[in-house]
Amino acid sequence: MTLRPDDHVVVVGAGLAGWTFCHEVRRRGYRGELTLVGDEPHEPYDRPPLSKQIAEGRWGLERTSLVTEERRAATPLTWRLGERAVELNAEVPFVTLNSGERLFATRVVVATGVRARQLPWRTPETVTLRRRDDAEHLNAILSGLGPDDVVTVIGAGFIGAEVATSVVKRGLRVRVLEASALPLAGVLGESVAESVVRWSASAGVRVDTGVSIVDISSENGYSEVLLADGERVRSRVVVAGVGAEPALEWVAGSGLALSQGVLVNEHFEARARVGALGDVARFPWRGEPTRLEHWQVAHDSAMTLAAWWASDEEIAPLVPYFWSDQYGHKVQVLGRPRPSATVHVVRGSLEESRLLALYEEAGLVSAVVGLDQPRALMLSRPLLATPTTVDEARRLAPWEA
Length: 401
Ligand SMILES: Cc1cc2nc3c(=O)[nH]c(=O)nc-3n(C[C@H](O)[C@H](O)[C@H](O)COP(=O)(O)OP(=O)(O)OC[C@H]3O[C@@H](n4cnc5c(N)ncnc54)[C@H](O)[C@@H]3O)c2cc1C
Description:
11 helices, Enolase-like, domain 1, FAD/NAD(P)-binding domain, globular, binds flavin-adenine dinucleotide, six-stranded mixed β-sheet, alpha/beta
């Protein structure tokens, strides 16, 4: 049912998804009460630059803000920043804050994202990178290092590779420790992952694969990472890029269907009057519940729910999109690649590490991956927006336009 002026929508999570939702319901004419709760003290900001321009030391943190004066003026709401939700009652509904205060609502949006997974060992030099404060802390450490200092990055996934890239751009030395035999193979499949790995080698970054860490200890301002083969890797800072977990504790007793995320329908509703957006939501993508930690998904999920609640309008289903900038190159992904998919390179080649590849599953294009092919990749979006066979895709060849 369309939102009315006597509604009160409480949005929990003042990140990209929560803020985009607030802006869009207002843009669509919702005039009722709107409250945005966020446990960080900061107004909504953009996370992708944290591992790129901010980690490189090129941008000040203020450039990451998502709240322009124009958007703020267009989005009147009650800000509850620096406050954490500890409970959701989805029946009434209400949200309980850490102060004990209850915010009674007519609708609630869960947009609490994910938090960085921590290593079992903590030392003063070990950091993760999820929040603005993490980025500020890491930046302060990196600024104090000299060319002989080594930065250890644990995990050669997207965040790890981006941090390693930024560290090198700052003129510092970096060593990357990766548990798997081939970074990103679990996402992109072996052949394309091998192409991506060549970028780190040509950038002169040492990536050790198949590494098993036994312990991390700290002494005199240095961390020592002990590897299973007995080697000790000593550095001034250890950046752990080992994945993330949905921030769901506060909805545990709410009765919402939880399974590695909040299960939602195509409108991003978890149940009547409760929505879930962004990194925390598991939405149906080609019939399968899917949770993706992608900027575009956070944005588009917010637009979808806002259109549904404020205007009763179904907008076109989102197409998952993700990008990563590493070692001076760009990986872009449309759809959902899986290592088990058959990979068809339709432009460029694996050897050049510059290509456009169609991923085929059950006879259909399930993903398109571009390595340094930004235009061709974007032109290929229609192949994911409607079910398309690989033969049809080759015939249409939208990437050639
Ligand atoms: C370093 C970094 C680089 C990235 N780079 C890329 C990239 O290149 N490409 C790409 O596609 N994606 C990238 N991403 C992912 C992208 O930023 C996320 O998909 C997006 O931020 C998700 O938005 P969200 O609103 O769902 O969650 P978030 O942005 O995480 O916002 C959730 C907010 O909710 C708050 N919160 C959590 N629990 C509570 C609670 N109980 N009460 C109140 N508030 C709470 C959190 O503190 C946070 O502020 C990157 C992410 C990071 C961290």
